[in-house]
Here is the input.
Amino acid sequence: MGTLYIVGTPIGNLEDMTYRAVRILENVDLIAAEDTRHSGRLLQHFDVRARLISFHGDSSEIRIEEILDVLADGDVALITDAGMPGISDPGVELVRAVSSAGIDIEVIPGPSAVTSAVALSGLVDAGFLFAGYAPRRSRDRVPFFTRVLGTGYPVVVFESPHRIVDSLADLAGIYPDQPVAVCRELTKLHETVYRGSVAEVVAQIGDPPPPGEYVVVISALVDSGSDVDDVGEAETIARTLLDQGLATSKVAREVARTCRISRSDAYDLVLKLKDES
Here is the structure.
């Protein structure tokens, strides 16, 4: 029986590819990649000629079975477009299937946008929470940010260039003075780190923002480890959600959940704010 190798690849700079990663890719029977066109250029650069197939978010169970068949007597490498497979990446489904089948899995460590951004940020003393991509819709982002920051840990999120300004604006609506570091195009020629409060960084980035992939590191709340229970915080969250057009009942439900107050108190607060507006 073969082995599935989870292989880290560069997040931007080809010089970050490890000797071990190249050796593994040269010797496996099959490489499963998120985007074969993108990974094909990487493999061509290192003169790797193993068979290449796609494995992405829309891959079917048939593709997983195909890979398991190869693993019956051969080795497979799993790579993603950039960084480590399985981190905000569809590769996690393959890892689960291979693990359930009792097949060996080995990791070949490589670059990570998450840890690179944390190291650059200067905002993380110990632990942190990686929350993947922020929600696509504005109405979902406010409760998302209040929820993850309510853990008391610094928070790391991925964001696309199409949503970075709106996402930071939503964060600024509830925590305008919160220190952040927004990293763009990590390890690439135009790597940039925007530092300051959320409101300051929104101004630095501008609209439209420069192209590229973004990683946002948000410092822990000053009252880290405590619940978000201040009346002012609840009012800020409620106003932001009301401005987005959410129904009174849904705003009250989100405020009650994120601020850990009773549903009736949250409902009364929302009604009061609507009467004042």
About this structure: Residues 231-276 form one domain.
